Amino acid sequence: KQEVTQIPAALSVPEGENLVLNCSFTDSAIYNLQWFRQDPGKGLTSLLLIQSSQREQTSGRLNASLDKSSGRSTLYIAASQPGDSATYLCAVRDAGGTSYGKLTFGQGTILTVHP
Amino acid sequence: DAGITQSPRHKVTETGTPVTLRCHQTENHRYMYWYRQDPGHGLRLIHYSYGVKDTDKGEVSDGYSVSRSKTEDFLLTLESATSSQTSVYFCAISGRRLDEQYFGPGTRLTVT
Q: B77 to chain A nearest CA, in Å?
């Protein structure tokens, strides 16, 4: 059974700092990995999707990397801003024809960026 | 943003009553999912659908049933609500290539 772990559980940084959020998964047979952002009381917003054949994806100040063989992904946020404060969730989709796109989520990292 | 709506957005109900949550999509996506989110457990899959009238169980399906009679609607029913089903429920959709999943705004359900 796939298990996803995110470290740290919470992170507080001053504005402007570059930071890294970590995600690890136990079964390397994945189809893709998706990073989400969740604001308090809101739904999930997809940030980046990395296919299993890719090493990284970039969107603006966000960069996500994937090392499938070691079961790890990182989300790098450059020049953090107070508006980046949210919970960041990592989710993996297992490979295999019967998975139907089901995602297994980590518990998230709560990020606070201080002005 | 993906066209996903959930109704109701908030509901308070009593133990033992039936409850139905609705997810509606305008994207014509084949795959739809119901998750619940709880502190300490994260998001967990309840049921999913891979087409009209095609559904299957997820990780935490006990006490829940689903139906999908049209592509755009996926219903989640709690036949007899219990306090352990107090949670935030999210619907998600995924397109033909099963790539990105897009989530709805959530329904906060409280069972008293």
A: 20
Q: Does the pLDDT of residue A99 top 90, yes or no? A: no
Task: Please check whether residue B94 touches A, CB under 8 A.
Answer: yes
Q: Is A34 a residue whose pLDDT tops 70?
A: yes
Contacts of A31 in chain B (CB under 8 A): 98
Cβ neighbors of B97 (< 8 A, separation 6 or more) are: none
Q: In what order do the strands lie in the sheet with A62-67?
A: A4-7, A19-25, A72-77, A62-67, A56-59
Parallel/antiparallel/unpaired status of strands B54-57 and B42-51 = antiparallel
Which structure tokens are listed for B26?
A: 């305008």
> What is the arithmetic mean of pLDDT over A89-113?
87
Q: Which residues, in sequence order, are CB contacts of A24 under 8 Å at separation 6+? A: A4, A5, A6, A7, A71, A72, A73
Q: Which residue has the tokens 């509606």?
A: B24
Picking from B8, B74, B98, B95, the residue whose alpha carbon sits closest to that of residue A95 is B98
Does B39 touch chain A if contact means CB atoms closer than 8 Å? no
* Binary contact (A102, B33; C-beta < 8 A): yes
Contact B48 A102 (CB under 8 A): yes
pLDDT tens digit string along B60-107?
999 999 999 999 999 999 999 999 999 999 999 987 665 788 999 999
